[in-house]
Amino acid sequence: MSLRVFVSSWLPFVECVLIAASVGCTVGSTRRDLLPAPLPELSRVDPGVQAQVRGRYETLKRALADRAEALELASAFGQYGMVLQAAEFFDVAEPCYLNAQRLSPDEVRWPYYLAGLYKSRGETDKAETSFKRALTLQPDDLPTLIWLGRLHLDQGRPEAAEPLFTKAYMLAPRTVAVVAFYNLLHLL
Questions:
Q1: Fewer C-beta within 10 Å: the chain N or C terminus?
Q2: Mean pLDDT of all residues in the chain?
């Protein structure tokens, strides 16, 4: 590997770390606590996906450089993580969600999306912890109740799933997913 290729492959990572280290923060965390969120190597994805990832990465870089408020920066990290997760760049999406969660600890989206990422990677303990964090923030969140309940069923723990599906059923008794899992639970 030539020096030029090596340097160009690490430049986005170094750039992100230097920008993040150079500015302060107001909510939930200091920017020195933030994890690097580099631009991944994009050759394996379609040009349209590459453009979306690059666009979100540029938005994040601008937010860091402009010393954006914590909630705006959390949104930039989270949205970058979302597009990375959709493109299955899970290892780069994870620190984005962790940063978003640190910057905006009361926002339910970031632990919810992080839980989905962990579930996709088969890290069920981490997924459960993140889903529970999301429910702490928003106890009546129907998608979180369903996904955490489903995770418990997948783990062979119907007793842990039962209160979640019961609550979901009480909140939305006509929702197809709720009815399906509620009934499945009662067949077990």
A1: N
A2: 87
